[in-house]
Design brief:
The structure is a single chain. The protein is α/β, with parallel strands linked by helices and about 600 residues long. About 40% of the residues lie in helices and about 15% in strands. The two termini are about 40 Å apart.
Length: about 600
């Protein structure tokens, strides 16, 4: 994986190019590269995973009178199939990187190459003869790509910090940006870059920039279909798709490992990887995160019914893996709060981000590539809100049933200027309307398809943001096999009664994968990414918030009502701030991250 950036039709000094490159080197610590041609500047920082010797970027290729140059961040999992097809068309390759294959594919098929790719990617290709830039992002949105139309030209980059490094780009926050942070955060409206004028190319979209204009289009989305297979046939298809996705994503020229939480998804991935490596005479390396004294302080609830330790040890023994624990203290979490903001460029998921950042640092000491279990819950319907009628049938985003609470925390001047409930409702209803649903679909089934689309367009993107930024900050490439678009396409048409087989969350996936895991792990009740339950963590973040409350110049209170923030120290909310894990300690931490972000990025408020 890598970092990419580009400057089109804008004057740019060598110092600015180097400044932008400097923001990219944590994502790409192995090498940097620069390409300039007329109005185009392309920048690249590389994390070498495939073909370390032959995959340097920017990469240039000429064919049929045109010269193409690519900057690419990602991984194609069907590289060899595409290479064979291109070879039949007369292409010859200098190395074995997927970057070279993607470049040749665009030269051969143009924009239609995207329909042939199975992978995670964000890339830009400059066509020197046509003076045209092509941008694209993978179907599921695993890899990021931000852009800004600026001074008659275009800036694009993997991360916000790189765009903000351009000297005349100001980190401005308007009313909409404030609404994103406080009414939707840590989620974001699809395509929104929070800072004024900054956008994100949406998943499944591409764009062409030429003659000072940017044209975007969607090349992929979830489409409903009539499902004719029996449950047994459906389970066979699911098993084949999941196994194929995991095996494809093991390709690497550097060491790989897996996240292992003891839950269904990471355990399945680890089991398949361990079997594949075993055939090669190798042992899998696995990684787990925990917190000091969590066994002592853990309190079951409906979102997190049990802790992970026992199940991790069962899997460690079953897999015979090289297993590594990362155990974090409350103090480590609080001390890394600012660093997590820097990694994400925005306030994030509080200690869930912070712990993942520290976890990925430890993993990177052992391997360069790791596989993780994100996205199975969105696609297979694993979250509690899929199966809780009270939440499922209620209007609004199911992972944030607290819009009134969020509106109440807005600073008075901002509260008066924003229709908070209307802002959230408009975005929720738009996503529901855009859900592709066959005519005549029963209301209950139609609602479940809306739920899948809501989760994929919103909640999944927050988790993918978190995983990408926290891992790439340490130069660790994390792959997410359940995000294979073929699985998402197939599952969208599968009826809910199959997914909820025998009334069990992800019942279809569990049934389909029988025989791969110990029964107690295969049928374990879902438990999310672990958080700390230590009251010391609440004490530490509360101390920090109390200090802010006494600071008359704290930038937080330009967005947040001071007294509403004070009440967080003594009152518990009936709903999490976001998702399953962001309760009172994490909400306090989120406010601390907002303050840190406003200070560190010198955000200018514009309303």
């Amino acid at each position: 994986m890598c970092a990419i950036a580009g400057i089109m039709d804008i004057n740019c000094s060598d110092g600015t190019k180097e400044k932008m490159l400097a923001t990219m080197t944590r994502r790409g610590p192995d090498a940097t590269g620069r390409y300039e041609n007329g109005p185009a500047v392309l920048l690249h920082a590389r994390l070498a995973v495939i073909d370390p010797e032959g995959g340097a970027q920017p990469m240039t290729f000429s064919r049929a009178g045109e010269t193409y140059t690519i900057v690419y961040n990602g991984e194609l999992y069907n590289t060899e199939e595409i290479r064979r097809a291109l070879t039949r068309e007369g292409h010859r390759f200098l190395g074995h990187s997927d970057t070279e294959v993607a470049l040749h594919a665009y030269a051969q098929w143009g924009e239609e190459c995207l329909t042939k790719f199975n992978g995670i990617f964000a890339f830009g290709i400059w066509e020197a003869g046509r003076r045209r830039l092509f941008l694209a992002r993978d179907r599921m949105g695993v890899k990021p790509l931000f852009f800004k139309c600026h001074e008659g030209g275009l800036l694009f980059a993997s991360e916000l910090k790189t765009i903000l490094a351009y000297p005349t780009v100001q980190p401005e926050l308007d009313e909409q940006g404030a609404a994103e942070i406080l009414l939707l955060g840590p989620g974001r409206t699809p395509g929104c870059g929070v800072f004024r004028g900054v956008e994100e190319l949406q998943p499944g979209c591409c764009a062409v920039y030429a003659h000072g204009k940017l044209r975007q289009r969607r090349y992929w989305s979830l489409k409903d279909r009539e499902h004719r297979e029996s449950f047994a046939e459906t389970a066979e298809v699911v098993r084949a798709l999941v196994l194929d996705a995991i095996r494809r994503q093991m390709v690497s020229d550097v060491p790989i490992g897996t996240f292992l939480s003891g839950g269904l998804d990471s355990s399945l991935i680890s089991a398949v990887c361990a079997e594949e490596l075993g055939r090669q005479g190798k042992r899998l390396t696995t990684f787990s995160v925990d917190y000091t004294d969590n066994d002592h302080y853990f309190t079951p609830d409906k979102f997190q019914p049990n802790s992970d330790g026992h199940y991790i040890r069962v899997m460690e023994k079953t897999l015979n893996s090289h297993h590594h624990w990362c155990v974090l203290s409350p103090r480590e979490l609080v001390d890394s709060l600012e660093e997590a903001v820097t990694a994400r460029d925005l306030p994030g998921m509080a200690d869930v981000d912070i712990s993942l950042l520290a976890f990925c640092k430890r993993i990177r000491e052992k391997v360069t590539v790791a596989l993780s279990g994100e996205c199975a819950d969105e696609i297979f319907g694993g979250y509690p809100w899929y199966r809780d009628p009270e939440i499922r049938d209620r209007e609004g985003f199911p992972w944030a049933q607290n819009t009134r609470q969020r509106c109440a925390i807005l600073a008075p001047g901002l509260r008066e200027r924003l229709d908070g409930e209307g802002y959230v409702r408009e975005r929720y209803e738009k996503t529901c309307r855009e859900s592709d649903i066959l005519p005549g679909t029963p209301p209950g089934e139609a609602r479940m398809k809306q739920m899948v689309n809501l989760n994929q367009q919103w909640f999944m993107q927050t988790l993918l943001d978190r995983k990408d930024r926290m891992s790439m900050y340490s130069g660790l490439e994390v792959r997410v096999p359940f995000c294979d678009y073929r699985i998402a396409e197939y599952l969208y048409g599968v009826p809910w009664e199959f997914k909820d087989w025998r009334g069990k969350e992800k019942g279809l996936l569990r049934h389909a994968m029988e025989g791969l895991l110990p029964e107690e792990v295969l049928w374990r009740k879902k438990s999310p990414y672990p958080k700390t339950w230590d009251p010391e963590y609440l004490r530490l973040v509360s101390e920090r918030l109390e200090a802010l409350l006494e600071d008359p110049k704290a930038p937080l209170f330009s967005l947040v009502d001071r007294e509403a923030a004070r009440r967080l120290l003594t009152e518990a909310s009936p709903w999490p701030w976001y998702g399953q894990l962001m309760r009172t300690p994490q909400t306090v931490c989120y406010l601390l991250q907002i303050d840190c972000w406003l200070r560190k990025y010198r955000v200018e408020l514009d309303w």
